[in-house]
Specification:
The protein is mainly alpha-helical and 117 residues long. The chain has a domain of 72 residues: 3-Layer(aba) Sandwich (Rossmann fold), CATH 3.40.50. 35% of the residues lie in helices and 7% in strands. A hairpin with a 4-residue loop joins strand 3 and strand 4. The longest helix has 11 residues. The two termini are 38 Å apart.
Length: 117
């Protein structure tokens, strides 16, 4: 993110940052209005608040914020999206575990150079 912001600033794009007090403590209705928004999800970031801000102010989005809260947090959904839009990607398998991390009746063996299901 820092590199992208620096690239924008080098091109004389004014970048304003919402501070932590604004993001974490202020009501979204009190956030400053900006006609364009670039938003990145990270651990601890309240993405749901950013989505509410977008719904309330309708800025032009530089990146898709809602996809960050759904697709990008799930490797399975990322692969599904890549397949959907025709982006080549490596072969993969999906191993679904229950709440205790168990595989149920599936036989699953992970070796140094392969996975057997």
């Amino acid at each position: 993110m820092r590199e992208l912001v620096q690239q924008l600033e080098r091109r004389n794009v004014r970048v304003e940052r919402f501070g932590d007090t604004c993001i974490f403590e202020q009501d979204v209705k009190n956030w400053p209005y900006f006609p364009h928004l670039l938003c990145f999800h990270s651990n601890g970031f309240p993405i749901h608040r950013a989505i509410r801000y977008i719904e309330a102010t309708n800025p032009k989005l530089i990146n898709d914020v809602t996809i960050q809260s759904d697709v990008l947090l799930s490797r399975n959904k990322v692969y599904e999206k890549l397949k959907e839009i025709g982006v080549p990607h490596p072969k993969y398998i999906v191993v679904e575990r229950d709440d205790q991390g168990l595989l149920g009746d599936t036989e699953f063996v992970q070796e140094a150079d392969c996975i057997k299901v």
